[in-house]
Design goal:
By secondary structure, the protein is of the alpha+beta class. The strands form three sheets. It has a four-stranded antiparallel beta sheet with strand order 5-4-6-7. A three-stranded mixed beta sheet has the order 1-2-3, with no helix packed on it. A hairpin with a 3-residue loop joins β1 and β2. α5 runs antiparallel to α6. The chain is globular, with a radius of gyration of 20 Å. The chain starts with 20 loop residues before the first strand and ends with a strand.
């Protein structure tokens, strides 16, 4: 007797999404392409009501119950106007030099391709990073302190986790990173140990997701794209306590 393959049960969108196009709903990702009416009603990103405005048209309650810590969530076809106030007020209208001058990072990561066409990262000063960017490098650095405080606080409050939003000494227990990517940049397969909310302020990014090597509630990330064998060795030791077969080849990637 031949066993029939078991069908995957797709997640059904709630009734308020009748005007939306759910082009993918699975164990890995739930995405929603906004309709014309929803685009017209789409709220601007508001730091005072952050979670609600980021995940629109999903409701915070539904997001926390069925998506948070279970799968990725993507909002597609949202109007660019939803970011206008955030970009102009807190991100210097995406002026790279001003963002670098205001970063709270002690060093800026610059990502470039080596002679084998593989991405490699180096840590640089703000001025050196700007020169590398002008020569085609991608940059990765912390956002200004003021907006970091506002965004981390907003997400912590929206997810009802503000009790853990700071360390005992008062420092933020979260980060806001700015990724300034050049066309063709590819980040190797990896995962982070914290939850991520990504706001695509400009351009296009493609994400590839996989359930292979998934580690529930990881206490360390797995980031082989950062140079340093000590870091990778520590990460592998920790994750192999959960799975002896853990490796760094099948996690997630995103390219521009």
């Amino acid at each position: 007797m031949q066993a029939k393959p078991r069908k995957r049960r797709l997640i059904q969108p709630p009734s308020e999404y009748k005007g939306s196009k759910f082009n993918r709903a699975s164990e890995i990702v739930q995405s929603c392409t906004l309709s014309s009416d929803q685009r017209d009603q789409c709220p601007s990103i508001n730091v005072e009501d952050l979670l609600k405005t980021i995940i629109y048209p999903e409701k915070p309650g539904g997001f926390m119950d069925s998506i948070w810590n279970k799968r990725a969530y993507a909002v597609l076809n949202a109007p660019v106007s939803r970011f206008e106030d955030l970009v102009k007020t807190h991100f210097f209208d995406l002026d790279i030099r001003q963002l670098l001058e205001s970063t709270i990072s002690p060093q800026v990561f610059a990502w470039m391709k080596d002679q084998n066409n593989k991405i490699s990262s180096i840590e640089l000063s703000e001025e050196a990073a700007m020169r590398c960017y002008n020569c085609g490098a991608s940059l990765y650095f912390r956002a200004p302190q003021e907006i970091s405080e506002a965004l981390v606080k907003g997400i912590a409050e929206g997810t009802k986790m503000n009790f853990a939003g700071r360390y005992p000494n008062g420092e933020l227990r979260g980060e806001v990173e700015i990724f300034v990517s050049r066309k063709g940049h590819i980040t190797d397969w990896h995962f982070d140990y914290m939850h991520n909310f990504t706001l695509q302020l400009k351009g296009i990014k493609r994400w590839r997701l996989s359930t292979k090597n998934a580690v529930p509630n990881p206490i360390r990330g797995c980031t082989p794209h950062y140079s340093g064998i000590d870091t990778l060795e520590q990460q592998l030791k920790i994750h192999r306590l959960s799975s002896s077969q853990f490796n760094v080849r099948s996690m997630k990637t995103h390219d521009v």
